[in-house]
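Q: Sequence in, structure out?
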Amino acid sequence: MSEILNQLEINSTLFSQLFLFFIVFLILRVSYFKPFMELIDARKKRTVSDQGLADEILTKANTQLREYQEKLHQAKVTADQTKENAISKAKKEEFQIITKARDESKKITLDTQDEILSHKKKLKEDLSKEVTDFSKIVLEKILKRKI
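A: Exactly. Output:
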């Protein structure tokens, strides 16, 4: 066995080096590794809690987005109904105005026709009277006496 140790060039200093390494490891573990691991664990916990908070905020944001979209949809439906009601009302008013205009136009036309007929009748009467008077005058001139 000592031959093998000699060939590998392992001597008694190996054990002292291992002991010193173990002592340095213990000192570093307490003074450096343990605080470093605690720092890493704290950061991991904070990251996990921040991730949970972010998920919660994202859930709230999605909920609000859905609520706003629903409100927007309701507003669009209401606006469409209001628009349709306004269009329907305008068409009814248009029909009423057109009907009234037609009725007034018909009345004016009938009144004008009546006026024209009465004027025509009066003109015929006047013409008939003038023709009679003219006939009398012509007849008097032809007969040279008064009738």
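The mean pLDDT is 89.
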